[in-house]
Design goal:
Rhopdopsin 7-helix transmembrane proteins, Alpha-Beta Plaits, Nucleotide_cyclase, 406 residues, single chain, 14 helices, alpha+beta
Length: 406
Amino acid sequence: MASELFFGSSGGIVSALMILLMLFLMTAMSLRLMLSRKKKAYFSLTFSLLLIAVQYAAVVAIGARPDAGDGGAYLVNGLQTLSFIALNVGLYQLYNPTKRKVTFLAYLGTILTLLILGARYYAASELFPDPAAAASVQANAFLNVWMDIYLYALIFFCFYFVTPSVGQTAKYQTALVVYFLTHSAAVLNSYIYDEGATGLRFAEHFLPVVFFFIVFLFIFERVLELMQAVYHSSITDGLTGLYNRRFFMRRLQQYLQGGVAVGVIFTDIDNFKKLNDTKGHQQGDEALRKVASIVLEIAEDIGLGGRYGGEEIVMIVADPKLDPGKVAERLRARVEAEAGVTVSVGWAKYRKGVTAEQLTKQADEAMYVSKKTGKNRVTAYKPGMTAAGLPPLSGPPRASQSLPIE
């Protein structure tokens, strides 16, 4: 009984039922994406999965394998070829926009499949009008071999020309190798061993299960990539790669709720409007990106950086052992040396009872003091500080000097 399920005629039905279960899961994912995002890639993928489901439902219904000798099984073989084309188009479109060349090749492949399928049935009726002669092993081999050769050509085409365009190269190539072995097992078992090789029959039945499991992993990983990309774009600034203001404030609030004595550094690029007006917005954007990259590098292991708005960049120093003032000075010095612009910097340390908004405002006020007292400097926030009521300074501080305000 067990040998019949794995090596006998029932093996094709068992494997088809297993594949149909995976197809149901993949179709559910693809359909959900198609309805929510309305992209051609998801339509193509959903269509191909439904076509494959029809193919394997036919296998279950007629109790035959795609390489069986009768006309019904050959129709299933044609569905297999069409679904292979549609599936690879769908997988390609998951990583690439739909181009006319791809559409043309997909239609060409489909038309060739239908022509081979039609030619097979026409040849069967014209060359072998006698049903007994048409059912012979030699006649079936002559009639069916063309679709098998064509499917080999499609496999090699995808391996060499589609592989470079998909993101999961190793996984995609592994799936194609498994598909090639599956088809080879079916061809050998049909044309050479006359269905008598039990090992080939097992491979023919259950290698497709491995193939569709790899395809399932491929689609699932791509869905995760897309979800991560959507989430990342929702929390980051497209120009600088820094976190956006909303996410920055939310993370700052979380730090404060967790009792972490964070510091906030508030940075504003000096003379940014003049830079935009005299050298153009492209140059201004480039300066902003350079400053942002420095902030990202400094904040990588000690906190996080964000774009507060315009040319204003903020940073959380989450390590309580670090002095935010020293971090701020290191940031100012690096910007001056590497970015071709200077920044005015203010910083504030968390005190009990201060909210995230208040802490950010304190750092902003300290930055404003730097801006009004010479620019390209660092100012530490002190209670009672206002930009309008600065106490007199005893001599001009150095650009790198922090300005303590009592």
